[in-house]
């Protein structure tokens, strides 16, 4: 099942710099592991914003939910999920 997910990160301005750096490093490792595993198909930066547009290919809604709740930055994110269906005009 394909899902488009927009994640917008809002880190608190007063966040401890070491906690901030370690959380971002953990997020990178988590995201790269899921990309290598084939569940996180696309990860694009929304230009000019601390936000990304991602596409996930997962077995079901519960798997997507588990992935999103497992994001180290999840407590600081606004997340919007859109289920994707094939467009009738798509050529690939
Ligand atoms: O930077 C972001 O958009 C937030 C998050 C998503 C993947 C990752 O490595 O960080």
UniProtKB/TrEMBL annotation:
The record places domain Muconolactone isomerase at: 1-89
- Pathway recorded for this protein: Aromatic compound metabolism; beta-ketoadipate pathway; 5-oxo-4,5-dihydro-2-furylacetate from catechol: step 3/3
Q: Does the keyword Isomerase apply?
A: yes
Biological process terms from the Gene Ontology for this record are: beta-ketoadipate pathway
Q: Name one GO molecular function term.
A: muconolactone delta-isomerase activity
**What InterPro entries has UniProt attached to this entry?**
Dimeric_a/b-barrel (IPR011008), MLI_dom (IPR026029), Muconolactone_d_Isoase (IPR003464)
**What would be one Pfam family of this protein?**
MIase
Per its UniProt record, what Gene3D superfamilies does this chain match?
Dimeric alpha+beta barrel
Keyword set, alphabetical order: Aromatic hydrocarbons catabolism, Isomerase
Q: Which reaction does it catalyse?
A: (S)-muconolactone = (4,5-dihydro-5-oxofuran-2-yl)-acetate
Q: Does the keyword 4Fe-4S apply?
A: no
* EC number, UniProt record: 5.3.3.4
User: Where are the annotated coiled coils located?
Assistant: none
Q: Which domain of life is it from?
A: Bacteria
| NCBIfam families to which the protein is assigned, alphabetical | muco_delta (TIGR03221)
State the similarity comment.
Belongs to the muconolactone Delta-isomerase family.
Q: How does it assemble?
A: Homodecamer.
Query: Know the name of this protein?
Result: Muconolactone Delta-isomerase
């Amino acid at each position: 099942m394909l899902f488009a997910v927009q994640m917008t990160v809002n880190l608190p301005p007063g966040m401890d710099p070491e906690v901030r750096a370690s959380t971002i490093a953990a997020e990178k490792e988590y995201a790269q592991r899921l990309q290598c595993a084939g569940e996180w198909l696309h990860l694009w930066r929304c230009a000019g914003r601390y936000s990304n547009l991602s596409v996930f290919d997962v077995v079901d809604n519960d798997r997507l939910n588990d992935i999103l709740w497992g994001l180290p930055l999840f407590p600081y994110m606004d997340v919007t999920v859109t289920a994707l269906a094939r467009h009738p005009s798509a050529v690939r």
